[in-house]
Amino acid sequence: MTIQEYAAWTNTTNQSRNVWTRDECFEHNQKLSLFAYFGGEKGVYVRITKDGELEVGRYEGAIPHIGEADFRIVGKKVFSSESAAFQRAAEMFGAGFLRNIICGA
Fold first, then answer.
1. Cβ-based neighbour number of residue 75 at 10 Å
2. Which residues contact 55 (CB under 8 A, 6 or more apart)?
3. Cα 56-58-54 angle, rounded to 5 deg
4. Which residues contact 67 (CB under 8 A, 6 or more apart)?
5. pLDDT for position 105
């Protein structure tokens, strides 16, 4: 990783301190419907599979990026669909979660 790449990754991680950040590359590689995190270097994450599994947890050590973090599952539940899992995540994390995930802002 070059110095410029490290700086870009660190910037992305730092921006997640105040907004939910969706990692579409991780989603694609893991065949997930959603992977999002909030909190910068240390925070919370949401993972939703295409078959409706919702996993929420905490992470730390995400410098320079979320791929370097240590993850700890707090809860996991399988719903009837990915839509039902997403709805439960939205209920848990509120309007800010929805706004950031859907609108990217």
1. 9
2. 46, 47, 48, 73, 75, 76
3. 10
4. 26
5. 58
Distance CA 81, CA 71 (A): 24
3-state secondary structure the chain: CCHHHHHHHHHHHHHCCCCCEECHHHHHHHCEEEEEEECCCEEEEEEEECCCEEEEEEEECCCCCHHHCEEEEEEEEECCCHHHHHHHHHHHHHHHHHHHHHHCC
Which amino acid would we find at residue 85?
A
Report the number of distinct structural domains present in the chain.
1
CA distance 93 to 105: 15
Mean pLDDT along residues 80-101: 94
The model carries a pTM of 0.89
Please name the residue that has the structure tokens 């660190």.
10
What is the domain range of residue 53? 3-103
